[in-house]
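cron nightly-structures :: item 1 of 1
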Amino acid sequence: MLSYTSPAEERRAHQALRLYRYLSWALTSLMYLLSVPQHSLGVASAVVIALLLAGHLASNFYQSIELTRHLAISLILVETAGIALLLIPTGGLSSPFIWYALNPIFMAALMLPVRHCWLALIGFLASATMGSVLLFAEPIAEVWSGRSLLIIVFLLVTAAASIFSYLMVALRKAYAQLNKAHEEAERLLIVEEQNRIANEIHDGVSQQLFSIVYALHGLKRGQGNLQDQETQEQLQLISETATRATQELRASIYRIKPNPNVNLTFVATLRAYLDDLAKLNSIQVNLETTGSEDSVSPALRQALSRIIKEATANAIRHGHCSTINVGMAMQLGALELRVTDDGDGFDPEHPNRRGLGLSNMTGLMTNFGGSLEINGAPGRGTCVICKVPAAGS
Protein backbone atom coordinates (compact mmCIF):
# COMPACT_ATOMS: atom_id res chain seq x y z
CA MET A 1 0.00 0.00 0.00
CA LEU A 2 1.30 3.46 -0.86
CA SER A 3 2.17 5.68 2.12
CA TYR A 4 -0.61 8.03 3.17
CA THR A 5 -1.56 9.85 6.34
CA SER A 6 -2.83 7.08 8.57
CA PRO A 7 -4.39 3.64 7.97
CA ALA A 8 -7.84 4.83 9.09
CA GLU A 9 -7.80 7.92 6.85
CA GLU A 10 -6.49 5.83 3.96
CA ARG A 11 -9.39 3.40 4.27
CA ARG A 12 -11.91 6.23 4.43
CA ALA A 13 -10.47 7.91 1.30
CA HIS A 14 -10.50 4.65 -0.67
CA GLN A 15 -14.04 3.91 0.49
CA ALA A 16 -15.18 7.36 -0.67
CA LEU A 17 -13.62 6.88 -4.11
CA ARG A 18 -15.00 3.35 -4.34
CA LEU A 19 -18.46 4.77 -3.62
CA TYR A 20 -17.97 7.41 -6.33
CA ARG A 21 -16.82 4.71 -8.77
CA TYR A 22 -20.01 2.69 -8.27
CA LEU A 23 -22.23 5.77 -8.38
CA SER A 24 -20.61 7.01 -11.61
CA TRP A 25 -20.96 3.52 -13.10
CA ALA A 26 -24.64 3.36 -12.15
CA LEU A 27 -25.50 6.80 -13.53
CA THR A 28 -23.50 6.55 -16.76
CA SER A 29 -24.75 3.01 -17.38
CA LEU A 30 -28.35 4.11 -16.89
CA MET A 31 -27.90 7.00 -19.33
CA TYR A 32 -26.28 4.65 -21.83
CA LEU A 33 -28.97 1.98 -21.58
CA LEU A 34 -31.71 4.59 -22.05
CA SER A 35 -30.03 5.87 -25.21
CA VAL A 36 -29.51 2.58 -27.10
CA PRO A 37 -32.15 0.99 -29.36
CA GLN A 38 -34.31 -1.82 -28.00
CA HIS A 39 -32.68 -4.50 -30.17
CA SER A 40 -29.20 -3.59 -28.79
CA LEU A 41 -30.02 -3.89 -25.10
CA GLY A 42 -28.35 -7.29 -24.81
CA VAL A 43 -24.99 -6.02 -26.07
CA ALA A 44 -25.35 -2.81 -24.06
CA SER A 45 -26.06 -4.80 -20.89
CA ALA A 46 -22.94 -6.90 -21.51
CA VAL A 47 -20.88 -3.70 -21.84
CA VAL A 48 -22.32 -2.37 -18.59
CA ILE A 49 -21.61 -5.61 -16.70
CA ALA A 50 -18.08 -5.79 -18.11
CA LEU A 51 -17.41 -2.22 -16.95
CA LEU A 52 -18.70 -3.06 -13.46
CA LEU A 53 -16.40 -6.09 -13.18
CA ALA A 54 -13.42 -4.12 -14.51
CA GLY A 55 -14.09 -1.26 -12.08
CA HIS A 56 -14.43 -3.64 -9.13
CA LEU A 57 -11.17 -5.36 -10.07
CA ALA A 58 -9.36 -2.02 -10.47
CA SER A 59 -10.67 -0.79 -7.13
CA ASN A 60 -9.34 -3.90 -5.40
CA PHE A 61 -5.95 -3.47 -7.08
CA TYR A 62 -5.75 0.15 -5.91
CA GLN A 63 -6.22 -1.01 -2.33
CA SER A 64 -3.67 -3.79 -2.65
CA ILE A 65 -1.00 -3.88 0.08
CA GLU A 66 1.72 -4.68 -2.48
CA LEU A 67 0.84 -1.75 -4.76
CA THR A 68 3.92 0.43 -5.42
CA ARG A 69 4.10 3.80 -7.17
CA HIS A 70 5.15 2.26 -10.50
CA LEU A 71 2.33 -0.27 -10.36
CA ALA A 72 -0.14 2.49 -9.48
CA ILE A 73 0.97 4.54 -12.49
CA SER A 74 0.66 1.48 -14.74
CA LEU A 75 -2.80 0.69 -13.39
CA ILE A 76 -3.99 4.27 -13.93
CA LEU A 77 -2.65 4.25 -17.50
CA VAL A 78 -4.35 0.93 -18.27
CA GLU A 79 -7.67 2.11 -16.83
CA THR A 80 -7.47 5.42 -18.69
CA ALA A 81 -6.76 3.65 -21.97
CA GLY A 82 -9.54 1.16 -21.30
CA ILE A 83 -12.12 3.90 -20.73
CA ALA A 84 -10.96 5.65 -23.91
CA LEU A 85 -11.51 2.40 -25.84
CA LEU A 86 -14.93 2.01 -24.19
CA LEU A 87 -16.02 5.30 -25.77
CA ILE A 88 -15.55 3.94 -29.28
CA PRO A 89 -18.50 1.47 -29.36
CA THR A 90 -20.69 3.51 -27.02
CA GLY A 91 -20.90 6.81 -28.88
CA GLY A 92 -17.43 8.34 -28.91
CA LEU A 93 -17.09 11.66 -27.14
CA SER A 94 -20.89 11.77 -26.84
CA SER A 95 -20.87 8.58 -24.77
CA PRO A 96 -22.16 8.90 -21.20
CA PHE A 97 -19.15 6.89 -20.07
CA ILE A 98 -16.92 9.90 -20.69
CA TRP A 99 -17.76 10.97 -17.12
CA TYR A 100 -16.53 7.62 -15.84
CA ALA A 101 -13.06 8.76 -16.95
CA LEU A 102 -12.83 10.92 -13.84
CA ASN A 103 -12.12 7.79 -11.75
CA PRO A 104 -8.45 7.33 -12.74
CA ILE A 105 -7.92 11.07 -12.35
CA PHE A 106 -9.19 10.92 -8.77
CA MET A 107 -7.08 7.84 -8.01
CA ALA A 108 -4.01 9.67 -9.32
CA ALA A 109 -4.83 12.57 -7.01
CA LEU A 110 -5.11 10.23 -4.04
CA MET A 111 -2.08 8.02 -4.60
CA LEU A 112 0.45 9.98 -6.69
CA PRO A 113 2.06 13.45 -6.90
CA VAL A 114 0.04 16.35 -8.32
CA ARG A 115 1.38 16.18 -11.87
CA HIS A 116 -0.08 12.72 -12.40
CA CYS A 117 -3.62 14.14 -12.25
CA TRP A 118 -2.89 16.25 -15.31
CA LEU A 119 -1.01 13.44 -17.02
CA ALA A 120 -4.05 11.18 -16.56
CA LEU A 121 -6.31 13.89 -18.04
CA ILE A 122 -3.99 14.54 -20.98
CA GLY A 123 -3.67 10.81 -21.61
CA PHE A 124 -7.43 10.34 -21.64
CA LEU A 125 -8.11 13.35 -23.90
CA ALA A 126 -5.36 12.27 -26.31
CA SER A 127 -6.64 8.66 -26.44
CA ALA A 128 -10.24 9.77 -26.93
CA THR A 129 -9.21 12.24 -29.63
CA MET A 130 -7.15 9.67 -31.54
CA GLY A 131 -10.00 7.18 -31.34
CA SER A 132 -12.42 9.66 -32.86
CA VAL A 133 -9.96 10.61 -35.58
CA LEU A 134 -9.00 7.06 -36.56
CA LEU A 135 -12.34 5.28 -36.24
CA PHE A 136 -14.89 8.01 -36.97
CA ALA A 137 -12.68 9.91 -39.46
CA GLU A 138 -13.35 13.19 -37.72
CA PRO A 139 -10.86 16.00 -38.34
CA ILE A 140 -8.88 16.89 -35.26
CA ALA A 141 -10.16 20.47 -35.39
CA GLU A 142 -13.77 19.24 -35.23
CA VAL A 143 -13.35 16.53 -32.59
CA TRP A 144 -13.96 18.89 -29.71
CA SER A 145 -16.04 21.41 -31.61
CA GLY A 146 -19.10 22.28 -29.56
CA ARG A 147 -17.69 20.48 -26.54
CA SER A 148 -15.90 23.39 -24.91
CA LEU A 149 -18.08 23.13 -21.81
CA LEU A 150 -17.04 19.48 -21.43
CA ILE A 151 -13.37 20.44 -21.57
CA ILE A 152 -13.88 23.23 -19.02
CA VAL A 153 -15.58 20.81 -16.63
CA PHE A 154 -12.75 18.29 -16.97
CA LEU A 155 -10.15 21.01 -16.41
CA LEU A 156 -11.92 22.33 -13.31
CA VAL A 157 -12.41 18.85 -11.85
CA THR A 158 -8.76 18.00 -12.49
CA ALA A 159 -7.69 21.29 -10.91
CA ALA A 160 -9.76 20.46 -7.83
CA ALA A 161 -8.25 16.98 -7.76
CA SER A 162 -4.73 18.41 -8.00
CA ILE A 163 -5.44 20.78 -5.10
CA PHE A 164 -6.71 17.79 -3.14
CA SER A 165 -3.52 15.90 -4.03
CA TYR A 166 -1.35 18.82 -2.87
CA LEU A 167 -3.23 19.03 0.41
CA MET A 168 -2.90 15.29 0.97
CA VAL A 169 0.86 15.47 0.42
CA ALA A 170 1.10 18.33 2.91
CA LEU A 171 -1.08 16.40 5.37
CA ARG A 172 1.08 13.30 4.92
CA LYS A 173 4.23 15.28 5.75
CA ALA A 174 2.58 16.96 8.72
CA TYR A 175 1.35 13.60 9.99
CA ALA A 176 4.88 12.14 9.71
CA GLN A 177 6.36 15.12 11.55
CA LEU A 178 3.71 14.84 14.25
CA ASN A 179 4.44 11.15 14.70
CA LYS A 180 8.15 11.87 14.94
CA ALA A 181 7.61 14.65 17.48
CA HIS A 182 5.24 12.45 19.49
CA GLU A 183 7.79 9.61 19.58
CA GLU A 184 10.54 12.01 20.65
CA ALA A 185 8.32 13.50 23.36
CA GLU A 186 7.49 9.99 24.57
CA ARG A 187 11.18 9.13 24.72
CA LEU A 188 12.01 12.28 26.68
CA LEU A 189 9.10 11.73 29.07
CA ILE A 190 10.24 8.16 29.72
CA VAL A 191 13.80 9.33 30.42
CA GLU A 192 12.53 12.08 32.73
CA GLU A 193 10.24 9.61 34.50
CA GLN A 194 13.13 7.19 34.99
CA ASN A 195 15.31 9.97 36.39
CA ARG A 196 12.55 11.13 38.71
CA ILE A 197 11.90 7.65 40.06
CA ALA A 198 15.64 7.10 40.50
CA ASN A 199 15.85 10.36 42.47
CA GLU A 200 12.84 9.36 44.58
CA ILE A 201 14.38 6.00 45.44
CA HIS A 202 17.73 7.62 46.17
CA ASP A 203 16.31 10.42 48.29
CA GLY A 204 13.71 8.31 50.04
CA VAL A 205 14.11 4.53 50.14
CA SER A 206 17.89 4.36 49.99
CA GLN A 207 18.35 6.92 52.78
CA GLN A 208 15.76 5.18 54.94
CA LEU A 209 17.49 1.85 54.43
CA PHE A 210 20.79 3.47 55.36
CA SER A 211 19.16 4.81 58.54
CA ILE A 212 17.92 1.30 59.38
CA VAL A 213 21.38 -0.21 58.83
CA TYR A 214 23.02 2.52 60.93
CA ALA A 215 20.50 2.03 63.77
CA LEU A 216 20.97 -1.74 63.72
CA HIS A 217 24.72 -1.25 63.82
CA GLY A 218 24.30 0.99 66.88
CA LEU A 219 22.19 -1.65 68.62
CA LYS A 220 24.77 -4.27 67.85
CA ARG A 221 27.55 -2.23 69.43
CA GLY A 222 25.46 -1.24 72.45
CA GLN A 223 25.44 -3.15 75.73
CA GLY A 224 21.81 -2.54 76.62
CA ASN A 225 19.04 -5.09 77.07
CA LEU A 226 16.26 -5.49 74.53
CA GLN A 227 13.76 -4.53 77.24
CA ASP A 228 15.42 -1.19 77.89
CA GLN A 229 13.31 1.82 76.99
CA GLU A 230 16.04 3.34 74.83
CA THR A 231 16.42 0.10 72.90
CA GLN A 232 12.66 -0.17 72.46
CA GLU A 233 12.51 3.38 71.10
CA GLN A 234 15.26 2.57 68.59
CA LEU A 235 13.44 -0.59 67.50
CA GLN A 236 10.22 1.37 67.11
CA LEU A 237 12.04 3.95 64.98
CA ILE A 238 13.53 1.19 62.84
CA SER A 239 10.07 -0.34 62.36
CA GLU A 240 8.51 2.99 61.32
CA THR A 241 11.37 3.73 58.94
CA ALA A 242 11.10 0.29 57.35
CA THR A 243 7.34 0.78 56.94
CA ARG A 244 7.83 4.14 55.19
CA ALA A 245 10.49 2.68 52.92
CA THR A 246 8.20 -0.21 52.00
CA GLN A 247 5.30 2.14 51.21
CA GLU A 248 7.42 4.41 49.05
CA LEU A 249 8.95 1.48 47.20
CA ARG A 250 5.52 -0.06 46.57
CA ALA A 251 4.22 3.31 45.35
CA SER A 252 7.16 3.68 42.92
CA ILE A 253 6.64 0.15 41.60
CA TYR A 254 2.89 0.76 41.19
CA ARG A 255 3.45 3.91 39.18
CA ILE A 256 5.80 2.27 36.65
CA LYS A 257 4.04 -1.07 36.20
CA PRO A 258 2.00 -1.61 32.98
CA ASN A 259 -1.55 -0.33 33.06
CA PRO A 260 -3.98 -3.27 33.42
CA ASN A 261 -6.97 -1.09 32.46
CA VAL A 262 -6.05 -0.50 28.80
CA ASN A 263 -9.57 -1.38 27.61
CA LEU A 264 -11.33 1.12 29.87
CA THR A 265 -12.27 4.67 28.96
CA PHE A 266 -10.08 7.57 30.00
CA VAL A 267 -12.16 8.52 33.05
CA ALA A 268 -12.67 4.89 34.09
CA THR A 269 -8.93 4.26 33.88
CA LEU A 270 -8.20 7.29 36.05
CA ARG A 271 -10.81 6.23 38.57
CA ALA A 272 -9.36 2.72 38.78
CA TYR A 273 -5.86 4.11 39.27
CA LEU A 274 -6.93 6.54 41.99
CA ASP A 275 -8.96 3.86 43.81
CA ASP A 276 -5.93 1.57 43.88
CA LEU A 277 -3.76 4.47 45.00
CA ALA A 278 -6.12 5.20 47.87
CA LYS A 279 -6.13 1.57 49.02
CA LEU A 280 -2.35 1.32 48.72
CA ASN A 281 -1.75 4.36 50.95
CA SER A 282 -4.83 4.12 53.22
CA ILE A 283 -6.12 7.55 52.22
CA GLN A 284 -9.26 8.93 50.54
CA VAL A 285 -9.11 9.98 46.87
CA ASN A 286 -12.16 11.55 45.18
CA LEU A 287 -12.60 12.02 41.43
CA GLU A 288 -15.26 14.29 39.92
CA THR A 289 -15.55 14.92 36.19
CA THR A 290 -17.88 17.00 34.02
CA GLY A 291 -18.27 17.10 30.27
CA SER A 292 -17.34 14.46 27.71
CA GLU A 293 -13.92 12.88 27.38
CA ASP A 294 -14.48 12.78 23.60
CA SER A 295 -13.45 16.43 23.53
CA VAL A 296 -9.97 15.49 24.84
CA SER A 297 -7.37 14.27 22.35
CA PRO A 298 -5.48 11.01 23.08
CA ALA A 299 -2.20 12.90 23.49
CA LEU A 300 -3.73 15.30 26.01
CA ARG A 301 -5.32 12.41 27.91
CA GLN A 302 -1.89 10.88 28.33
CA ALA A 303 -0.43 14.18 29.53
CA LEU A 304 -3.26 14.69 32.03
CA SER A 305 -2.79 11.16 33.34
CA ARG A 306 0.89 11.85 33.95
CA ILE A 307 0.12 15.11 35.73
CA ILE A 308 -2.49 13.47 37.97
CA LYS A 309 -0.05 10.69 38.88
CA GLU A 310 2.71 13.20 39.64
CA ALA A 311 0.47 15.52 41.67
CA THR A 312 -1.09 12.73 43.73
CA ALA A 313 2.29 11.11 44.36
CA ASN A 314 3.69 14.42 45.61
CA ALA A 315 0.67 14.93 47.86
CA ILE A 316 1.19 11.51 49.44
CA ARG A 317 4.96 11.37 49.59
CA HIS A 318 5.79 14.96 50.50
CA GLY A 319 2.49 16.31 51.82
CA HIS A 320 1.52 13.28 53.95
CA CYS A 321 -2.10 14.00 53.10
CA SER A 322 -5.17 12.01 54.10
CA THR A 323 -7.55 13.25 51.37
CA ILE A 324 -7.05 14.14 47.69
CA ASN A 325 -9.73 15.67 45.48
CA VAL A 326 -9.30 15.45 41.71
CA GLY A 327 -11.70 17.51 39.58
CA MET A 328 -11.70 17.72 35.80
CA ALA A 329 -13.99 19.80 33.58
CA MET A 330 -13.84 18.63 29.95
CA GLN A 331 -15.52 21.04 27.56
CA LEU A 332 -15.12 21.82 23.86
CA GLY A 333 -14.08 25.37 24.70
CA ALA A 334 -11.43 24.53 27.31
CA LEU A 335 -10.30 21.99 29.86
CA GLU A 336 -9.48 22.49 33.54
CA LEU A 337 -7.92 20.04 35.98
CA ARG A 338 -7.61 20.55 39.73
CA VAL A 339 -5.77 18.29 42.17
CA THR A 340 -6.25 19.43 45.80
CA ASP A 341 -4.94 17.79 48.98
CA ASP A 342 -5.07 18.46 52.72
CA GLY A 343 -1.39 17.70 53.31
CA ASP A 344 1.46 19.69 54.81
CA GLY A 345 1.61 22.09 51.89
CA PHE A 346 4.62 24.11 50.76
CA ASP A 347 5.63 27.44 49.30
CA PRO A 348 5.60 27.05 45.48
CA GLU A 349 7.82 30.11 45.09
CA HIS A 350 10.60 28.62 47.19
CA PRO A 351 13.51 27.89 44.80
CA ASN A 352 14.38 24.60 46.50
CA ARG A 353 10.84 23.21 46.17
CA ARG A 354 10.52 23.20 42.37
CA GLY A 355 11.94 19.81 41.51
CA LEU A 356 11.91 17.66 38.41
CA GLY A 357 8.29 16.58 38.88
CA LEU A 358 6.93 20.13 38.83
CA SER A 359 9.08 20.95 35.81
CA ASN A 360 7.68 17.91 33.98
CA MET A 361 4.09 18.97 34.69
CA THR A 362 4.77 22.50 33.48
CA GLY A 363 6.41 21.17 30.32
CA LEU A 364 3.45 18.91 29.57
CA MET A 365 1.02 21.82 29.79
CA THR A 366 3.27 24.03 27.66
CA ASN A 367 3.20 21.43 24.88
CA PHE A 368 -0.57 21.92 24.59
CA GLY A 369 -0.55 25.70 24.95
CA GLY A 370 -1.89 25.40 28.48
CA SER A 371 -0.85 26.67 31.87
CA LEU A 372 -0.06 25.12 35.24
CA GLU A 373 -0.61 26.94 38.53
CA ILE A 374 0.30 25.69 42.01
CA ASN A 375 -1.31 27.24 45.05
CA GLY A 376 -0.26 26.27 48.53
CA ALA A 377 1.30 27.26 51.81
CA PRO A 378 2.95 25.37 54.67
CA GLY A 379 0.25 23.66 56.74
CA ARG A 380 -2.57 24.54 54.32
CA GLY A 381 -2.34 21.84 51.64
CA THR A 382 -1.68 22.21 47.92
CA CYS A 383 -3.80 22.80 44.82
CA VAL A 384 -2.50 22.08 41.31
CA ILE A 385 -4.53 23.78 38.54
CA CYS A 386 -4.08 22.95 34.86
CA LYS A 387 -5.90 24.85 32.10
CA VAL A 388 -5.83 23.99 28.40
CA PRO A 389 -7.53 26.19 25.75
CA ALA A 390 -9.70 24.79 22.98
CA ALA A 391 -6.83 24.63 20.47
CA GLY A 392 -4.76 22.47 22.81
CA SER A 393 -7.55 20.07 23.69
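cron nightly-structures :: done
The first strand starts at residue 284 and ends at 291.
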